[in-house]
Amino acid sequence: MKFFVDTADIDAIAELNDLGMVDGVTTNPSLILKSGRDIMEVTKEICELVSGPVSAEVIALEAEDMIAEGRKLAEIAPNIAVKVPLTWAGLKACKTLSDEGNMVNVTLCFSANQALLAAKAGATFISPFIGRLDDLNIDGLDLIADIRTIYDNYGFETQILAASIRTANHMSECAKIGADVATAPPAVIKAMANHMLTDKGLDQFVKDAAQAGIKIL
Ligand code: E4P
């Protein structure tokens, strides 16, 4: 499973990228707001840092306007994936932008039917939102599994990009289901390293090393 990092924070992306943990980046208007940066400037910087796909989201609601915005975003760098919402207008924009050779990430997906339409419209990535479904007491992971089944049934090449990931458990569950990509905030990716038995075991080893007088350097 590829790891995308869900942030527009350059320092956080750089830290994970240095460890080989970043196969791509996803942003959205809320993450751009949080960064306090200009969308074109920060997106360009991210694209220079990361060689994989960097999703940049349109803000228009009409198809023609989304297409114009998507073309402008795609000029930032060859690794831009234009992000469009899963509306009828967004699907039209997806078809045009992908026919023109752009990577397209269709976002705000909350149902298997929406994912089926995105694949038909030539999406490179479909972004089902797990956490926002969980917030409504609907299991977001079930949606990832349903889309995996449907795409495999028909050989759709659209990649399942599990989004709105809130916990380390979401990451391992997505990997078990077979999501192609998971995008997560830096804190969730770091939390995957945590285990209380690791901390407990290390604590004991530190104490025993001191008692044994072990010195390596
Ligand atoms: C990524 O593409 C999505 O925009 C993001 O994962 C949404 O996450 P949230 O539901 O935590 O805002």
From TrEMBL:
Residues annotated as catalytic: K83 (schiff-base intermediate with substrate)
Compartment(s) where it occurs, according to its Swiss-Prot or TrEMBL record: Cytoplasm
Chief location of this protein within or outside the cell: cytoplasm
EC identifiers of the protein: 2.2.1.2
Reaction(s) this enzyme catalyzes, per UniProt: D-sedoheptulose 7-phosphate + D-glyceraldehyde 3-phosphate = D-erythrose 4-phosphate + beta-D-fructose 6-phosphate
CDD domains: Transaldolase_FSA
Single GO MF descriptor: transaldolase activity
Keyword Transferase: yes
UniProt GO BP: carbohydrate metabolic process; ketone catabolic process; pentose-phosphate shunt
Entry GO terms, CC: cytoplasm
HAMAP family membership: Transaldolase_3b (MF_00494)
NCBIfam families: fsa_talC_mipB (TIGR00875)
PANTHER family assigned to the protein according to its UniProt record, in alphabetical order: FRUCTOSE-6-PHOSPHATE ALDOLASE 1-RELATED (PTHR10683:SF40), TRANSALDOLASE (PTHR10683)
Reported function: Transaldolase is important for the balance of metabolites in the pentose-phosphate pathway.
Protein name as catalogued: Probable transaldolase
Source species: Puniceibacterium antarcticum
